[in-house]
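Structure in, sequence out. Go:
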């Protein structure tokens, strides 16, 4: 799923927030307000209140007391957390608070401090992100009363303390926002975590459900039995199974001073992990650890599918994540080895995210023959077949992805097992159609693009379709890369249910592909049609339902046991993004989601490839 690099996203959000006066520390009239009798001598729980936003937003407070429980000295949100040792006994009101200093804080963990400043609500990612806000004090004046104090005992988060229900329904009168609702920490997981915002928390030994990423983060679950996958993850199986036990883990210690542990899904974070509970743009509720547990390696292995038998046609799909000739040879070699060793050299392989010959250089180049040759040569070097290929070059910068990268889908096929039926004329803007040759369906252009002028494909990859012949039988293959989920709100959104705006585009894309499949089956009722690729949506989604409308396609991943249905791991949720769907004539098939990337800290792509085998 192409996306803005996180560093660029953070910089953009910070700039926008500063311009709008959203960040703590930015100027506002409230920052100069006088301290009132109502705000003098308030405690942290008074500032936090019993909802998600402070009742004292915009007001000045003086001498708010607390013990420093964590200090963040790096990144764009420098500051420290304080916690009150005199709790009010209300489980809905947090006793912790973040103090935004903008520069490196001069306090230390264990300091007893008094803080004066402006109460604010900072929304990580900006107001349009839908994210929940962090209650904090900005423009602080800080007095250190004493040092070396004992920290407040952490609240231990366990399977028993986290409610099974994820979030309350949002208030329809407030655009489904939950911000104004009274917290019910004994009923909803999001309310429980919010009631601990900014306080000292800990978890015991927990299973890793999201591998260590390039930003030194990992995900664990405190509920090991919650929708567990066969390989140690936690599966996202519906819009209502958000998996309440997931938490992101970061470290307060910069990686320049202490290496962050490297973990794969199924590993165990052993011992105690303790620190302030934060909320951030890229993961929601996060333990910013002062002390980290130790990763115990569960020795997760990369899977390998079985080879196809002589009479079986093997078709696979693989998102190779913005592959271009400037990538190191090691990436090409690793991807090629996966094709040969893990995918057993499928007869037909559809690739997503093949970039043009100059990669993300925005120079007008659209051809990708050099990218493809470098990859197919690496496959031969790895012991695989000499794949032939077919593709249609896109118009420059018309298919989304990285500007200048011109990602597209590509067919690789083993000419010793499969032949390709070429029908000339296919290009970026000409639509292929379905004709009838005798009693059989045929394409007017092969390879060709499906309905490229349809508004559904604006700034998105157009489907690539081609005719293949295996043992005398024609198989129509449609390679897809639907629009990404960029712009959707997170599961921890202040809006419940979260807004999923990107689905609108994919729904229209699915309808276009479904209509084309119906044209094929109208011309030939028993035609073999395989529709596959990075669908960027779940097997239970409206997108998949629209693709399958009328019973013309069936998602093969649904044939697997539920605990094996996933191809991608996002924020600790193992989920389906990549799919292979088949027409009714392909009623007996063997399906495999080959887990070689998504669960691992070391990845050659962020997607797991999918393989389908059947006898035409």
């Amino acid at each position: 799923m192409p996306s803005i690099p996180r560093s660029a996203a953070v910089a953009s959000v910070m700039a926008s927030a500063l311009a709008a006066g959203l960040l703590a520390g930015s100027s506002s009239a409230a920052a100069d307000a006088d301290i009132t009798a109502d705000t003098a001598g308030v405690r942290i729980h008074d500032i936090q209140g019993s909802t998600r936003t402070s009742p004292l937003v915009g007001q000045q407070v003086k001498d708010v007391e607390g013990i420093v429980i964590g200090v963040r000295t790096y990144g764009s949100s420098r500051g420290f957390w304080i916690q009150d040792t005199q709790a009010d006994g209300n489980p809905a009101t947090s006793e912790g608070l973040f103090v935004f200093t903008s520069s490196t804080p001069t306090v230390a963990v264990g300091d007893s401090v008094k803080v004066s400043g402006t109460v604010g609500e900072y929304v990580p990612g900006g107001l349009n992100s839908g994210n929940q806000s962090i209650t904090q004090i900005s423009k602080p004046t800080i007095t250190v009363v004493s040092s070396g104090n004992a920290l407040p005992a952490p609240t231990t988060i366990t399977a028993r303390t986290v409610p099974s229900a994820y979030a309350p329904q949002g208030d329809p009168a407030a655009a489904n926002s939950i911000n104004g609702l009274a917290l019910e920490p004994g009923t909803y997981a999001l309310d429980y975590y919010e009631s601990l915002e900014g306080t000292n928390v800990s978890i015991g030994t927990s299973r890793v459900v999201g591998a260590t990423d390039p930003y030194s983060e990992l995900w664990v679950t405190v509920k090991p039995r919650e929708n567990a996958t066969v390989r140690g993850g936690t599966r996202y199986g519906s819009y209502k199974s958000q998996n309440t036990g997931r938490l992101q883990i970061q470290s307060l210690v910069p990686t320049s001073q202490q290496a962050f542990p490297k973990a794969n899904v199924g590993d165990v974070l052993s011992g105690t992990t303790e620190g302030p509970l934060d909320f951030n743009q890229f993961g929601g509720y996060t333990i910013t650890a002062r002390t980290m547990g130790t990763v115990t390696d569960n020795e997760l292995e990369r899977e390998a599918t079985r080879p196809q038998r002589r009479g079986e046609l093997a078709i696979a799909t693989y998102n190779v994540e913005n592959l271009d000739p400037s990538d190191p040879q090691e990436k090409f070699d690793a991807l090629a080895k996966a094709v040969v060793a893990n995918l057993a050299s499928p007869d037909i392989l559809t690739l997503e995210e093949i970039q043009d010959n100059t990669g993300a250089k925005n120079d007008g180049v659209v051809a990708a023959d050099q990218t493809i040759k470098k990859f197919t040569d690496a496959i031969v070097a790895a012991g695989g077949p000499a794949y032939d290929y077919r593709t249609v070059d896109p118009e420059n910068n018309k298919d989304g992805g990285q500007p200048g990268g011109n990602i597209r889908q590509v067919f690789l096929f083993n000419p010793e097992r499969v032949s390709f039926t070429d029908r000339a004329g296919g290009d970026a803007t000409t639509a292929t159609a379905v004709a009838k040759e005798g009693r059989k369906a045929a394409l007017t252009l092969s390879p060709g693009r499906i309905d490229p002028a349809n508004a559904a494909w604006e700034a998105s990859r157009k489907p690539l379709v081609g005719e293949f012949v295996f043992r005398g039988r024609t198989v129509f293959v449609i390679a897809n890369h639907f629009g990404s989920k960029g712009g959707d709100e997170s599961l921890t959104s202040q809006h419940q249910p979260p807004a999923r705006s990107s689905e609108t585009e994919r729904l229209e894309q699915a309808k276009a592909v479904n209509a084309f499949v119906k044209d094929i089956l109208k011309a030939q009722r028993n035609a073999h049609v395989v529709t596959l690729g990075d669908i960027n949506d779940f097997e239970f989604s409206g997108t998949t339902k629209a693709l399958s409308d009328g019973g013309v396609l069936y998602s093969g991943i649904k044939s697997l046991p539920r605990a094996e249905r996933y191809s991608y791991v996002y924020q600790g949720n193992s989920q389906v993004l990549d799919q292979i769907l088949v027409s009714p004539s392909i009623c007996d098939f063997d399906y495999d989601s080959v887990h070689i990337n998504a669960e691992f800290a070391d990845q050659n792509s962020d997607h797991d490839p999918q393989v389908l085998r059947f006898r035409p």
